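note to self — DONT lose this again. spent like an hour looking for the file last time. sequence + predicted structure for the chain T wanted, 261 res
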Amino acid sequence: MDLGLNNKKALVVGASRGLGAAIARALATEGATVVAAARSVDKIEAWIAALPAGVRGRVSALKLDTGDLAQIDAAADKLLAEGGVDVLVNNTGGPPPGVAKDVKRDAWLTQFQSMAANLFHLTQRLLPAMQEKKWGRIITVASSGIEQPIPNLALSNGIRSAVLGWSKTLANEVAQDGITVNMVLPGRIQTERIGQLDQANAERLNVSIDKIAQSAMAQIPAGRYGTPEEFANVVAFLAGEPASYVTGTKIRIDGGATRSV
């Protein structure tokens, strides 16, 4: 299937590793010009160097800390001066684990700024250029925890649920401009982040990390963790022309793990 991403430009936030890096690679493979943004530019440059020659030239690295509003505005200024972007993938690292009764106010405010408010601002800055072109894709990576709260991830469950409300509202506002707005909800995808969460749960419950992973897999109908590439392929489809009538949705990529209808 031709996703129609040739001559499209994408910004992928949080692209130094894991899901963000996999999404950036998938979009570039499909023909898009990709700006991969994250705090660790050296990590981005490392995986760019490993790409096939025909794909490598379509990806560039940009330093961006979503917790720093000045960097958000500087990135937006640069991209707008170059004509804006057609595809925006909002992706942030997950916040520290913790239970709701223990998370302090300062942690809520800090993480909300980085995971929500600054992404709202970045989207707002880049949106008018999409509206002028009458074409755009805004895709936000969240978590299956917004449908089925995940134990010990209070910050993620709460903040990403707020992002869901924003995404659905924005989708209704810009659909007539040829812009789609969707969310993708990863379950247990085999990334460094999942390894860290498994380790945290193992320490909290005083069991081995292998036992945590085996227990988690037993709850997934597919019987395994997903791969970043499987996740990224869904994002690439949503970014393309064939998904032009898909908007205001949240799509699970979790091997069937979410039990709610």
